[in-house]
């Protein structure tokens, strides 16, 4: 996912005035991001940080990229559980990595406290020039008749788009051949060049190519249609019993006192539900959520269970 924003360290400070003056007596709220400035997680973290600055006084967003977000997660795991250090990250490290990595130096359930699910997003099943199909039914019929045509690309082995294809196989009983690339851009070039038939991609990343006719989004993976491409049916509408989304969320270290957690949860949930932040999220292609801590914990448990079978069926294990 690629979003452009100036790569600057974000520090928002309020003066000591009004009911929020007490916030100035506390240390800054540190929001860690395990990805470089300008990426989706970074943008989400900065938008949320700006929206809750009146509740916390000083907000500092720290980018600690590397290892798919695991470096930042390690820092949060080791941080003092006082409610002053949190992380904003996509769902992969919390629901996919435990099934993928041979050695993971954190437990996504025991080592962190869920704060709030910030936003959800879904993927599109994207048909390229090589396949030239317009519906999921056509794709499945062609895959049965010509198995060599049933190829799909991803940004790499072990990524969410990779396992979206595996879940599609299990949901339809029709095999597809996974073709991993070194990143999303090479996979996209292969699709446009006719070297692979399909790709699973975040809808916001493919919507413009779909609108210009260079590729076709033939279905979306969520429970409802995506407002960016409202004419595109869901997989379930297309006859495939499959539903899968990804999300961004905020977590704190394990052991955060209930009072500090309640303060974080209340501030974040309220901010995400404001018209201003909802509009910003929607323009970026994300569905605003602003859940409670308990709701995020439930979503994480559900996705941990959802992805276990398709991931383990591939035999993919990374170090």
From TrEMBL:
Keywords: Signal
Region forming the signal peptide: 1-21
A Pfam family annotated for this UniProt entry: TctC
Family: Belongs to the UPF0065 (bug) family.
Protein name per its UniProtKB record: Tripartite tricarboxylate transporter substrate binding protein
Lineage of the species this protein comes from: Bacteria, Pseudomonadati, Pseudomonadota, Betaproteobacteria, Burkholderiales
